[in-house]
Design brief:
Elements lengths: L6 H6 E8 L7 E6 L4 E7 L2 E6 L13 E3 L2 E3 L6 E3 L16 E2 L1 E4 L2 E7 L2
Antiparallel strand pairs: 1-10, 2-3, 3-4, 4-8, 5-6, 6-7, 9-10
The protein binds FE2/S2 (inorganic) cluster (FES).
FE2/S2 (inorganic) cluster binds next to loops.
Length: 116
């Protein structure tokens, strides 16, 4: 039987603190550097979404682009991604964005990361 204290279980999925909800203005987004990755945090009418900050096409930070609802548009070549699913919506990017499950506790935003 595996207990909650099992070190293997604890390293499989873990909550990582990202920032305070108050750090992200409503209907806006920010890039946040974590210890092991850089993420985009968007505070939308539909909720808070976190994804990798870099466009999957070339080197562009999506937080330098535009947010419209839950869609983010790359500043370099204009591909849009749906932050709910990570799906790429337009060329030239053709690889989906990695998104993270979000948990908000006491106005602090956490993501669940897979640490295999
Ligand atoms: S770098 Fe984002 S679409 Fe090209």
């Amino acid at each position: 039987m595996v207990s909650d204290e099992d070190p293997l279980l604890m390293t499989t999925n873990s909550l990582t603190k990202v920032c305070l909800l108050a750090d992200i203005p409503h209907n806006d987004m920010r890039c946040v550097s974590l210890s092991d990755r850089n993420v985009l945090v968007a505070n939308t009418d539909s909720g808070v979404y976190v994804a990798d900050e870099m466009c999957t096409h070339e080197d562009a930070r999506l937080c330098d682009g535009n947010l419209s609802g839950t869609k983010v548009k790359c500043p370099l070549h204009g591909s849009r991604f749906d932050l709910v699913t990570g799906k790429v919506l337009d060329d030239p990017a053709n690889v989906d964005l990695i998104t993270y499950p979000v948990t908000i506790v006491d106005d602090t935003i956490y993501i669940t990361t897979d640490q295999h």
